[in-house]
Amino acid sequence: MKLVQRKGRLWGVSVAALMVSGWAMPAAAADLGGNCCADLEERIAELEATTARKGNRKVSLTVSGWVSENVIWWDDGSEKNTYVGTSPVEQSRFRFLGEAKINADWSAGYVLEIGVWGGNSSKTDQDNPDGTAGTPNSLSVRKSSWFLKSKTFGKLTVGQDSTATYHLLDDTDTTLTRNFYDAEGPPDYLQSFFLRDKAGNRIPSGSSSLKWGDALRGFNNSTPGDDGRRNIVRYDSPTFAGFNVATAWGEDDIWDVALIYKGEAGDFNYNARAGYGQSTDGFSTPCHGSGSSPDNALNCEWWGVSGFAQHTPTGLFVYAGYGKQHDGSNDPAIDAKILEKDSTTWFVQGGIEKKWIPLGKTNVFGMYRQDDAGSNVSGTGSIKTTGANINFWAVGAAQNIEAAESTLYLVYQHADGDVTVGTNSSATELSAMQQVIGGMKINF
């Protein structure tokens, strides 16, 4: 009898469960709708259309970059105009970064970075608003390299990439100004414009007229102390107590080394860099001449130091640096014509960067840079300039927009000085160049 009662209870519970399930299942089906699968397939198709595709499942792929365009009003004392172009400080670009874990310590990967020029603002002059022939509306391979990385032993990079002293003076800056007006910023915006004397004449007149970049020295963006991107083998050490070392070698022949520091103490953040480099490659590192007419007996050295400090509570910061380039040749005939072998630059930038409004950080700054430039001799020994003294000063402001990962900026820049043309015994005073630079950099 007890067994019959238990069976009866069990049967009753089973019937109740089936009835509840019967009611619930149609309700759930009704909620989903008859076209649930079609909607799901459509959503998957949308995601596939907007997703970067990979060649394999072992290597991650990150696509990133930015668009950085500016409007520049300029006045050289005799002529004035307004141009639109791509920023010469942080060129528009897109980047593919792939990386795969080998084990808990090691990983391998690659970098492909392509630069994009609309109007090339580093090549514009009084006659060419989009840049000189061959430079506007073009692509350039900025980086193409692979790497092996270890948390214990550091990172090895092979291919076209940054040398150890690439942006030695620039990358110490961690404020918004790094996006549009770093150490290389002052000459970047005017180096291709023709020089004028106080009377408004080009120097000298005719097809051989000099540009600001001819008077300035420094083989990378007219800034002594900085190197560029080259085909190199580079090693970066792990970081110890805020310090790490980078060194690189490549081309025929270039080598350099840098000591890098990043740290905090109390209410202050600090960054500092120091580096040295040497090159005998007149093609990829034209300390004089140009990449198309190099001195194959080149003997060029450069070094620089830079530092940055910011008081975190107030946002006040100071950023400064010094760079030097020694230009020589193992060809006695050319070396004798490089009358002023040393070129130097120093700069100081100060300001305040703080988040006063919900949009993001606001930056207000001022900068002064002074260049004592050495001789500019072509690869065949023709003397363009014996030396020059160029002064830059600027004031500006920037606003970061966090929600759009972008930075708006506005800068006023003034440049003047003097240049000694050829073997002249006296310097020619230059007509000042004034520029107002406004633009936006938006990351993706």
TrEMBL record:
Annotated InterPro entries: Gram_neg_porin_domain, Porin_dom_sf
Residue span(s) of domain Porin: 16-418
Provide a GO CC annotation, any one. membrane
Looking up Pfam families in the UniProt record yields:
Porin_4
Instruction: Name the keywords, alphabetized.
Output: Signal
Question: Where does the signal peptide begin and end?
Answer: 1-29
| MF terms in GO | porin activity
* Record's protein name: Porin domain-containing protein
Organism the protein comes from: Hyphomicrobium facile
